[in-house]
Amino acid sequence: MKIRSLPLLVIYAAITLNINGQQVVMESFMADTALTGTSWSICFADAVTGEMIYSHDAERNLASASVMKLYPTSAALLYLGPDYRYETTLYLTGSFNPRRGVLDGDVIIKGGGDPALGSEYFAEHYGDVTGTWVNALREAGVRRVRGHVATSESIYDFNPAPSGWAWGDLGQYYGAGVYDININDNMYRIYITGGQEGEQAVIDSVQDYGRDIILTSYLSSSGRTDRGYVYNAPYSDMAWITGSVPADSSFALRASIPDPPLALVRKLDAAIRSSGIRVDGNPSALRVTLDTALSQRIITTLSPTLAEIVSVTNHESVNMYAEALRKHLGYMVLGQGTFNAGSAVIRHLLDSIGCEPYEAVMLDGSGLSSNNNISALMTVRLLVYMNNSECAGPFIASLPEGAVSGTMKNYFRDEVFKGRVVAKTGTITSAKSFAGYFITNSGRKIAFTTFANGFNVPSRTITDYMENLVREIILNY
User: Fold this and answer.
1) Could you tell me which residues come within 8 angstroms of residue 108 by beta carbon, excluding any fewer than 6 positions away?
2) Which structural domain, as residue segments, surrounds residue 186?
3) Which of 113, 193, 202, 244 could cross-link with 222 by S-S, CB 3.0 to 4.6 Å?
4) What is the mean pLDDT of residues 275-299?
5) Co-location of 345 and 197 in the same domain
6) 10 Å Cβ neighbour count for 372?
7) H/E/C letters for each residue in 238-261?
8) In the predicted model, is pLDDT for residue 28 greater than 90?
């Protein structure tokens, strides 16, 4: 399948207006000896015309952190459309006798890549997913399943985690992988009681989707801060926990589900049995070849719209959603359910708006990898393009507002920013970033990106400088 071409919009960086206020702020960055060794990439442009307003080393590639999420979310809106919905379907295979209610076959879940299935962010939309499916089985007359509950062959490859992610992140909730069947944001909670200082912490219980995982705990009770880490590998049924949790307190660690399709199969199997339907076989981890033409569809669960999923992705900075969008782009546009194919689609978008190949090293689509390298100039090009695209509304609405929502609640809190700034934030070790839009006193809309890497000061120090730069442009442009 060929990638649909998008209109070319070249953003020229040849002209930079000399506005004294911005230069003074930038010089204060450079003069601060505590920031010696810090790398900056900064770019401000008119969001309508693309005219460059101010830049500093804008073509320098730096680690973007979660600003990277702007790339798969914008591409998904453009190529799939804001109203696109994922489908997850329940089928009966084999021979079904509706009079007797006996299925000589299997109950099969066919995944469509929905990243939000059963998510707490969309609890009202989905309700009780497995309960709804069981009701549909009962309404179809199923009383006995002589086979088992399983899943169909995946529409994606079997590599759930981007190659740029660190091993230590894979067991954490923010390091959850991507599968054709995802459930509960591919996350489960481990409920823990911390004892007295220095004592071993006790695991009290585990949320449904983690109950079949064999946990080995080396957790201690210490201090008042969560320093607990869960380690596991994709498709493994074993995990171990190290570090410490707050002493003398109850605490919930969030961990990634190592095999979400199997976790959902087990939960559905248990729900079917609890409803009184007999199931002869055990829930299966095997992927079953499904011929939909010879199978009976029982129910299809639709996701929220893509615009709603993109909004949560950028507001709450959900890594798994961003990676799921990237992989699904590869599947839908190129017919290849891989991260590399998804990145090729994103790269085509960037090429079409005038970005140079050297302006991006994208090892993931979420920014969790510290080895991503993108420039502020390229990101502003993307922001200007999206502001003038048919998807401007849902894209800009997906960005949290300064001092108000999502990951921006604690930033741009001064009165001068009120109601003016929406942006994606990014934070990883020694990297801080913002990218989005703001309105100046003169009513002009500015697309901006600020990256800082390699600093050894509190992140708040960096954000103060970045906010000062935005303030100057609000007041003077």
Assistant:
1) 90, 91, 92, 93, 149, 150, 151, 152, 288, 290, 295
2) 86-303
3) 244
4) 96
5) no
6) 27
7) EEEEEEEECCCEEEEEEEECCCHH
8) no
Share above pLDDT 70 across residues of the chain, in percent, rounded to a whole number: 94
pLDDT (tens digit, 9 = 90+) per residue, 388-447?
999 999 999 999 999 999 999 999 999 999 999 999 999 999 999 999 999 999 999 999
Render pLDDT for 301-316 as a digit per residue (tens, 0 to 9): 999 999 999 999 999 9
Q: Does residue 422 sit in helix, strand or coil?
A: strand
Q: Tens digits of per-residue pLDDT, 255-264?
A: 999 999 999 9
Is 355 a member of any domain?
yes
Find all residues with CB under 8 Å of 415, minimum gap 6, and list them.
none
What is the bridge-based pairing of β-strands 87-92 and 421-428? unpaired
Give every CB contact of residue 217 below 8 A, 6+ residues apart in sequence: 200, 201, 203, 240, 241
Task: Indicate if the pLDDT at residue 199 is higher than 50.
Answer: yes
pTM of the model: 0.94
Count: domains in the chain: 2
Tell me if 403 sits within 8 A of 409, measured CB to CB.
yes
Residue 13 has pLDDT above 50, yes or no: no
Rounded CA-CA distance 180/176 in Å is 13
Asked if residue 187 and residue 73 are part of one domain, the reply reads no
Chain length of the chain: 477
Of the candidates 320, 330, 344, 365, which has an alpha carbon nearest to the alpha carbon of residue 164?
365
Query: 255: which strand partners?
Result: 172, 188
- Burial class from Cβ neighbours inside 10 Å (0-12, 13-18, 19+) for residue 158 reads exposed
